[in-house]
Amino acid sequence: MKSKLRYPGLVMTAFVITALVVAACGGGDPTPAPTARPTATSPPTATALPEATPTPAPTATPAGPQPVRGGTFNFWMTRNPSNMDLNRQRSSANWMSVVPQMNWLVQNYQGRTGPGPDLAESWSVSDDGKTWTFKLVQNAKWHDGQQVNADDIIWTFTRITKNPDEQGVEGAGPVKVPPYLGALALITSMEKPDDFTVVINLSKVSAAFLPIIGAIGNVIYPEHVAITEFEAKRPVGSGPFVWKSWKVDDSVELTANPDYFKKDASGRQLPYIDAIKIFVISDAGLGLSAFRTGKINMTFPFAAVITVSMEATLRTELPGTQFYSGGLSWAYLEFAAGKAPWDNVDVRRAFSLAIDRVAFSEAATEGRGSPFVFFTPVGSNWGLPEGEMQSLPGYNPDTKAADIAEAKRLIAQAGLTADDLKISVPVRDIYETLAVVAIQNLNENLGAELKINLMDNATTIQVQNDAAFDIYISRNSGGLDDPSALLTPFVGTGASLNYGNWSDPEVDAALDAIDAELDVAKRLQLTNELERKLIDLAWYVILSSTPTAIAWSSSVKNFDMLHGQDGPPWRFEDIWLEG
User: Fold this and answer.
1) What pTM was computed for the model?
2) Confidence band (pLDDT; 50, 70, 90) for 60?
């Protein structure tokens, strides 16, 4: 017997874009929330497997102003896309160029009731929670005219789970682990009873399986198009926009797909706009200037150009400009496993005690961030309460002087001198500001002599994959507001973002228990217990949440920002332009 659960609120009443942050492997940075620090949301209280069988519904048309057709939506990114293979590499430039052309099996409507239809119009799950059956829409076509079918789903997920081309991706080096593997690793087999039905069997129940299918990098690729075409920047998708051109160091252009399978609630063809043009502007100041002069409609979500003072200026200069700052991102430093002195937990704890998180957050985020987070930042349903965080060693601003004294004692106890703390710290170039603030703080409070080694994206990826560092400073995000997605990629043995190669069987067992637990209250309890353990292990020292602000012009309608990176954020399928 199949169990079914309907999600009537999962139609697209407003398009969303995210705060993406994902960076350490070449990703972007989070997008934003209001200037005021967001308050944490209450954890969900329902107890259920996310087993949806939503009734497919047209994309909702917003009440009030009606869509206007036509126009080109312009925004910018700081670098060229490295390749078009989202299954294999995390990169904001790749996301921004590729996602408008693609679809997921299901998509995550963050802030709503859960995953909703995309290429799958409905689905069901077996009573034991291990067999999922997805019914596909029958009117989705690839941009070359071929029909999307079950073979495409199976081919994509096989590629993600089996990692058949692990030798590398153009522009990315070797692929350690597919970056959005997550709960898809539990797939034991897949079958297609017919061309529009996919049956996926799991080795065990996974609370995170359904949302992870909709992770931003798990877009569905066509089986009949060689992946080398995507790597050569000739993608073929099924989404609302079709690849037109890419001019190196200039722009990427996409045009509306006249055969896109989605319509709004009034039966109008999506998308509403005619085209997207993404300018490549490496200098953030020039990008901001392009926004202020009307050349682009939206600032780059991952460049910290919308400071508090700039937001005030733009509100006066360009009335009607809309702003958002927030996101699931955070800055962190990570240690390499198996190397002295980082194999000594007291040394790692000393760094956690020494950092002044409040001072870091004020300097690095202008007070938009929160220093009281650990992987699951402000706004997440799964983080430790802020009150508890403030009571922990290293997090309590009232005991900072004592924490610093204890940090120095632990360093001395480990037999380390200032000479031992003369360390070159690899930092990706776009995170220079964060690293400068963190290193100045640590050098002052700990008596260290850390120095920044700035690297470009490709070099950083190689350093990460090789664990060629002692200490690493970066910024990242779990994307999905789900404990398995927020924790497992960073601390699971062999996980894609576990660059320090940390491993602990107790941590792995805790991660497994969290993913297998369907009772939300119990899952929250397990998550918080693991967070406390990880804070004590100090593999990572989380410094602060790191929201950056984004601005978009008053001409952009039906555009909204949410705090996560996944779902339909980057497709722009139901925004329109006025004026």
Assistant:
1) 0.81
2) low
